[in-house]
Amino acid sequence: MKLILASQGFTTDEIANEVSKLVGKSLADINVAIINEAYVVKPETSDKRWLIKELSQIEKYIGGIIDFVNLRAYNKEEIRRRLQNADMMYIVGGQNFILPDLFKETGFDEILKEFAEQKVVMGTSAGSIVLGKQIESDQYWKARYGVTNCEIKNKTLELVDFNIVPHYKREDHQKWDANFLRETLKDNSFPVYAITDEQAVIYENGKISLVGGKVEIFGRK
To answer: What are 90-100's pLDDT values in tens digits?
Structure first.
């Protein structure tokens, strides 16, 4: 299984080159299937420029076919057909709880697990979080999202035994700094990688590597 848990996608040449290595093709030849439905419940007052910027970075680096796989529009057979044509699935972020609910509702949770054994999967922000292990801390969830872990109906897919905190140290995420993460994740039973928008965590068949320099790790290492 080959996964890339990123914060904001193709923000650096280093991340793009690591994607190429993981896929085993040049960037010019990689076909990408984009899952992009986690932003839809964001309020109209939420500026979506971040989404345009992120998608434009995919177009900048990827030279193959770029397709959008709309889970609400296609049946399972069509979803599988479109994914089969891609070298990599790219799951865009957005509202944190949307993807686990959407994947369960459409049956994509099982499809993703199936194709993750064949294709590279790259997630960004909430699209990365859904791939990792469910963070256990009620204190963390309550402070960030106003709910406890036990109140969350559909959990993350837990394809790997770690997770990330995206957008670390970004100006609009300053309240969730190292002190906050150290306190709220101190009893978490697995590592949580706090990554900036220029970093990513790569999981390749059991081996973890980091892109973009040293990252801070919280929880039990």
So the answer is: 999 987 888 99
